[in-house]
Known about the structure:
Elements: H1 2-13, E1 26-32, E2 35-41, H2 47-55, H3 59-62, E3 65-71, E4 80-82, H4 86-89, E5 100-103, E6 113-115, H5 125-132, E7 138-141, E8 159-163, H6 171-177, E9 186-190, H7 207-214, E10 224-228, H8 234-243, E11 248-252
Parallel strand pairs: 2-3, 3-5, 4-6, 5-7, 7-8, 8-9, 9-10, 10-11
Antiparallel strand pairs: 1-2
Helix pairs in contact: 1-2, 6-7
Amino acid sequence: MDRLRSLQRTIESRALPDSDASFVDRLSVTRAGELVHLDFYGDHYGEAFVDLLDALQDESLANSVRSLIIRGPDTGANGTRNWDLSSLANSPVSFSRLTHLSIERTKPTDHNRSIVAPIYEEEGLLGKLLAKALQLLVIETPSTPNEEFFRLQNHPLECLSVDTGYDHQGFVANLARSSCFPNLRFFEFGEYQETYMDDFSTHVTPIQDYRTLLQSSAFASVRYFRWFNPVCTPAELAELRAMRKDCQISVLRWTLE
């Protein structure tokens, strides 16, 4: 793991003694036999993040990663924090032993909307990453993936945590029509939250998509649904809960200022 040790030293060398701890880039590496668990904290536009993505394009390293966590300070441009994973998604490497991928989602206290995209559009990046990680059990992402995410069959994914970001991309409807995650047990979904926009209501997921999802075979294995910021009436929520009494539906609401 010389590549990881070198990467850690490079990241550490850039830290200034008087820097605020919340802005110090760092990479935590935990070894478990031949496998590694990586926890990266840094600026989404910083050199450390680019260095991490470059290192992960080494096939031997990529195939040894068991879990990958990507997170950082609440920084951004024009209110957006872009985790641009396009170089990794478009690389030839695979993550044959990766079981947990977490890309930090937007927190209630954040001033920037987190997304997975070079600029604003997800462009199938998450589907490409999923195709590289055929043992993935858990994924957490601040953007909804497009239809490419649902092309695989019988993927072992068990936990799926997704925020809409700037475009729901028909995610709920696509999931309802899919047959790719037969082992899915836990589902989190954060609805579109740009409430300051005049046409906000036209960008949220249609309530009919949720009805279709809860009644679909794709959702039959799910036992816990945590729903963030749903745009629905109490009556509609009660209706959805009645559709799947064997699935616990929890609702949490907050607004990004």
